[in-house]
Amino acid sequence: MSGExxxxxxxxxxxxxxxxxxxxxxxxxxISVFVGTTRDNFDGKKVVQLEYEAYKPMAEKEILKICxxxxxxxxxxxxxVVHRIGRFMQMAxxxxxxxxxxxxx
Length: 105
Description:
alpha+beta, 4-stranded mixed beta sheet, two-stranded antiparallel sheet, 37% strand
């Protein structure tokens, strides 16, 4: 099964609804969602904020490789991975990932 891979590195606020639209298909029966957030602790220490940065061309290329690995292992239709860069306070959404039409393992 082949589909589309959508990869984006952005400093803009993430929208689960917008990413969902990228993978919606009438031939698929499910959408799997992962949203990463900034937690308030790490290794027993308080986390006040996180800062993500990326060299976008290389990061997007590597994420596309991961999409290919997913396709080699599972039957999926569309994949969207959106990662936010910048400085984030606790509980901010920083990663949005959706896989459309997970058929089986």
